[in-house]
Amino acid sequence: MSGGVDLGGLIQKEQGAPPAKRSPAPKREPAKSSSSKAKKSQTLKPVGTYEDLYPKMVRMPKASSKALDAMASDLQDAKIDTRTSRITANTVCRVAIDLFLEVMDGQLEGQTEDELKANALELAKQWQ
Fold it and tell me: I need a labelling partner for 9 at 20 to 30 A (CA). Which of 32, 51, 67, 93 fits?
């Protein structure tokens, strides 16, 4: 749970005990520019396990959500080896994000979501 409220500290304060000391948050490395061609190959790493992944919520139109679910379902249904991990909408999103980051690095331009989308679709036409 996030939000910055220290419930444990509040309870201890109510009970007259000194608040417990919280350990400092782990230091994060500063973000590095991904524009170099050498770093592109680092984007497509094996996924690992569920515990290796970080949550990221994305809001999208209902039609996009339904299309994403349908694509994942079609891919799952087409699988021959059913012993492998299930293909879900999250799986498809991770693949799409990795592809997007790999291909669009340094090329995407725009000031709004609509401009970014139009530019991305125009660049994608070059792949065909």
Answer: 51
